[in-house]
Write a structure and sequence with these properties.
Strand content: 5-15%
Strand order of the largest sheet: 3-2-1-4-5
Number of helices: 6
Distance between the termini: 35 Å
Number of strands: 5
Shape: globular
Largest sheet: 5 strands, parallel
Helix content: 40-55%
Radius of gyration: 17 Å
Structural class: alpha/beta
């Protein structure tokens, strides 16, 4: 029985905050709100924040990458907005790595519309977070981003709640670029 609720061609709306003409100050406030959703836990309902759960997934994936080779792994977050859950993911993941005497991972923030002001603050709070201050297109990531700033590094791409921004064609291009130029992604 078809109730017409699911279609092959979903209706796509746009977000005002994604538009280049949208005021940066308000975009920043929206990004702060989204960060709070990632980094807060609902008591009695959630045992961990979404960012802590994501850190567990990234940790497992990076551990699998490190089993194959001994080179450094850099986590490059695409479509970072104001930084979102990355500081929490970095803290949780690297705290666990230090407990197991593993080298901490570096994280790099990128976005089509970089939020450099917010990222400077995050970088000041953690020596393992850095950022690319110029616009980065996830469909065609430049070499200096893909290598994480080091020719020997392996890159793990991270996309935190960003795929709803992309239609199917654009999502495919991003995934194709990720498959061609990185060692893993989540």
């Amino acid at each position: 029985m078809d109730f017409g609720l699911v279609t092959r061609n979903p209706i796509r709306f746009f977000e005002l905050a994604d538009q280049s003409w949208f005021p940066g100050y308000i975009r920043g406030k929206i990004q702060e709100m989204l960060t709070n959703f990632w980094t807060r836990r609902i008591p009695f309902i959630q045992t961990a924040t979404p960012a802590e759960l994501a850190a567990s997934v990234v940790s497992d994936a990076v551990s699998d990458l490190e089993k194959d080779q001994d080179s450094e792994v850099v986590v490059v977050d695409f479509c970072s907005g104001g930084g979102g859950p990355v500081p929490t993911i970095e803290r949780v993941l690297n705290t666990g790595r230090r407990r197991h005497h593993a080298k901490p991972l570096r994280f790099v923030l990128t976005d089509l519309y970089p939020h450099v002001e917010a990222w400077r603050t995050l970088k000041a709070e953690s020596s393992y977070i850095n950022y690319v201050s110029k616009s980065v297109d996830a469909c065609n990531a430049p070499a200096e981003v893909v290598t994480g700033g080091s020719e020997d590094a392996r890159v793990f791409r991270l996309f935190c709640l960003s795929f709803h921004h992309f239609d199917d064609r654009l999502a495919k291009r991003i995934l194709d670029d990720s498959m061609a130029k990185s060692d893993g992604f989540a």
